[in-house]
Design goal:
The chain is mainly beta and 730 residues long. The chain has one domain: TonB-dependent receptor, beta-barrel domain (Maltoporin, Chain A), CATH 2.40.170. It has nine helices and 37 strands. The strands form five sheets. The chain has a 22-stranded antiparallel barrel. The chain has a five-stranded mixed sheet with strand order 3-8-9-6-7.
Length: 730
């Protein structure tokens, strides 16, 4: 009897997923046989819904070593195919993942500011789900973004990242708009993101929607090469308690706690707190790099749903962090530079309120306001930024073939800096700036062929204090010839407005020899401009295989350069010295083009394979500039990236997840290509309790990923790490 039962289990569990029952049937079966597992499904397993997995590959034409790295990665991933014989004892009722069709129809909001199936979005969109986060082993938002094709993600040290989309990567990358629950986390100081302070409890993230390509028509200036929207779960989906903790070699210790409760049938609330301490990374010789980092953070969210179609959300966060940093600053005496070790600190918080009103099945409106504060001491200057933002939008059907959305917005920012005259580091003049941005947008979805073809036209008009009025139009066409295929194309104009630094900053370069070279802001610096052309194709080929391909061509004008000016002398600080100015200008043109491909394959019901590939090329036209480094940007981004993820649900409630990545060389930064491997082993003895052991960057003791050229950070290499984690839901 037992032998027959085991044989039946093996036959059901190991058969190809194309012949399995649907994911919903499997989930229903699991619920009916495990009545107390509802929380597990709600918070974790059902988050699998949104997998459109991929890989990210880029590399320069000079590198001839792509075949061998890919072969090694595939061997590591597919070498575990002997495991199915061990998996035969696992019950099929434990397989709670949903079908590919259901995954492709998961609703996203970042493309059109309203819910629509991801498979029908006329944009290059990728969704990282909560299940992806859990099974990746990533402990931060930047590390999780390595899953996204078309993104360039590189870690500089323990507390800094360089992240961009479709090129132009830098610690101070300025062409990517990032939001957390609709709150823009862009800083006006350098028009980019302080990634070290963008965090929340990872288990509270519902999904991360990533758009590659312009999103300026809806989201405004600086959404040039992409939009990243981190969306946390509603309070009603995080009821009960959660306690997580762990430690390891690089993750020296971390803990998090969250509790959610019901105030009434229509009102839910949660609160959370977390702390982590991360170890130093390494120098090229393997010594500690003096860049350790720790942070404490807490926050809450309250959601209320009224019977009259009104929804209210109120949420807020507060954090404090401390980090070590090693940088080099210039001096005016031999050896003309000095290593500076210091302890930096950052404190900040935010509050957000949102009201959404549903008027009818085809119309509604929303009003959102938030306030954000950041106080940063980074060893070179103190920065305090206060931002207030108000946004209104309304949508309604217009006849039977059109859906119109429009909105208005206002943002105010106050940026204060404190210069340090005792050091030849960064300085700002003036030290206090006020920024006002007014905006309005309109977008019209026009049905050309019912249920088959839609044309979306829109534009955003924005006024800023730097360059005045800017207009950013776009057009997108979507054709769905079948329920399983989508073909789309888009043309867009996007603007990157100046930052405070590009207007007001002075950055003295630590060259190690006279004369002193200083990058100087320029009040005549204008907008950077982009014309982008995109096309894409999605197809659920079978019940077990789907593909998503996007291509693009970007034409940039008036990109930032540093133009050599007339040398001058200055007596303060002493001694009297000569300064060679490099003035910020707009004298560079560029074009980029590339392809991003992602697949999801389920050879067996318990095994998912998610490969992706990215190809990126950049050409710079330097005929109008005196910037001798302007041409380096095309060699500071990987031409090829590959990522392959293998996720296995094994017997005895265990999971084995393997993630291999190849990143091409960065010749201008002297960064070689590399292959890395992450492995996670998980065990869930009960639906409420989970243990995991994670190894990261396992193939090298340490390796460099990126170097910043604008600020002289100490060269740092990223180390191999292992950590263990426990999560308990109660």
């Amino acid at each position: 009897m037992e032998t027959d039962k085991a044989a039946g289990t093996l036959a059901r569990w190991a058969k190809p997923s194309g012949f399995a029952s649907s994911g919903i049937q499997r989930a229903d079966s699991f619920l009916s046989s495990n009545g107390n597992s509802t929380r597990r499904l709600r918070e974790s397993d059902l988050a699998v819904l949104m997998n459109s997995r991929r890989i990210t590959c880029q590399r320069t034409s000079r590198d001839r070593g792509l075949v061998a790295p890919l072969g090694l990665a595939l061997a590591l991933l597919f070498g575990v195919t002997a495991l199915p014989t061990l998996a035969a004892t696992r019950s099929p009722e434990d397989l709670t993942e949903l079908s590919l069709e259901e995954l492709m129809n998961v609703e996203v909001t970042s493309v059109s500011k309203k819910a629509q199936p991801a498979s029908q979005a006329a944009a290059a969109i990728f969704v990282i789900t909560q299940e992806d986060l859990r099974r990746s082993g990533a402990t931060s938002i930047p590390e999780a973004l390595r899953m996204v094709p078309g993104l360039q993600v590189a870690r500089l040290d323990s507390n800094k990242w360089a992240i961009s989309a479709r090129g132009s990567n830098s610690r101070f990358a300025n062409k990517l708009l990032v939001l957390i629950d609709g709150r823009t986390v862009y800083t006006p100081t350098f028009a980019g993101v302080y990634w070290d302070v963008q965090d929340t409890l990872m288990e509270d993230i519902d999904r991360i929607e990533v758009i590659r390509g312009p999103g300026a028509t809806l989201w405004g200036a600086n959404a040039v090469n992409g939009v990243i929207n981190v969306i946390t779960k509603k309070a009603k989906d995080t009821q009960g308690g959660l306690l997580v903790g762990g430690a390891g070699t690089e993750e020296r210790g971390f803990t998090g706690v969250r509790y959610g409760t019901t105030l009434s049938d229509s009102t839910h609330i949660r609160a959370y707190g977390k702390f982590f301490a991360r170890d130093d990374q390494a120098t090229a010789t393997g010594n500690p790099a003096t860049d350790s980092w720790h942070q404490a953070r807490g926050g809450m969210r309250l959601d209320h749903t009224a019977n009259n179609g009104d929804d209210f959300t109120f949420q807020g966060d507060y954090y404090h962090q401390q980090f070590l940093e090693n940088t080099t600053i210039p001096t005016l005496v031999t050896p003309f530079k000095q290593a500076l070790d210091f302890t930096g600190r950052a404190t900040g918080g935010n509050v957000l309120g949102r009201w959404t009103h549903t008027i009818s099945a085809t119309s509604g409106l929303s009003l959102q306001a938030y306030y954000d504060r950041l106080q940063l001491d980074n060893g070179r200057q103190d920065v305090k930024t206060d931002t207030a933002d108000l946004n209104f939008q309304h949508y309604a059907a217009w006849g039977t073939r059109q859906n119109v959305m429009w909105g208005l917005g206002y943002r105010f920012a106050n940026n204060q800096t404190s210069n340090r005259p005792d050091q030849l580091t960064n300085s700002y003049a003036p030290q206090n700036r006020y920024i006002n941005i007014w905006s309005g947008f309109v977008q019209d979805d026009i049905t050309l062929l019912p249920s088959t073809m839609t044309l979306t036209l829109g534009t955003k008009v924005e006024h800023n204090d730097f360059t005045g009025l800017v207009v950013q139009p776009s057009g997108r066409l979507r054709w769905t010839p079948t329920n399983y295929q989508t073909i789309w194309a888009a043309a867009s104009r996007a603007i990157r407005t100046p930052s405070i630094a590009e207007d007001d900053v002075r950055i003295n370069q630590a060259t190690g020899r006279p004369p002193l070279i200083a990058a100087l802001g320029n009040r005549d610096f204008g907008n950077e401009k982009l014309l982008a052309y995109e096309a894409g194709y999605r197809n659920q080929i079978t019940q077990t295989l789907s593909v998503d391909i996007a291509s693009f061509y970007n034409n940039y004008k008036d990109l930032r350069t540093l133009e050599r000016g007339t040398p001058f002398t200055e007596a303060v600080p002493a001694p009297t010295h000569t300064v060679v100015p490099l003035n910020v200008g707009n004298r560079l043109r560029a074009e980029t083009y590339g392809v991003e491909a992602a697949l999801e394959w389920r050879p067996l019901t318990w095994w998912r394979i998610q490969p992706s590939y990215t190809y990126l090329r950049m050409h710079l036209f330097t005929d109008r500039t005196t910037d001798v480094n302007a041409g380096n940007a095309q060699r500071e981004n990987p031409a090829h990236q590959v990522s392959v993820r293998s996720l296995m649900s094994l017997p005895y409630k265990t999971e084995l997840d393997v993630w291999a990545r190849y990143v091409d060389q960065l010749p201008a930064l002297n960064i070689p290509s590399y292959i890395t491997l992450d492995v996670r082993l998980g065990w869930r003895p009960t639906p409420e309790l989970e243990f995991s052991l994670v190894g990261q960057n396992l193939l090298d003791p340490h390796r460099p990923e990126f170097r910043e050229t604008l600020v002289s950070y100490a060269p740092t290499e990223i180390q191999r790490g292992v950590y263990g984690k426990v999560a308990w839901r109660f």
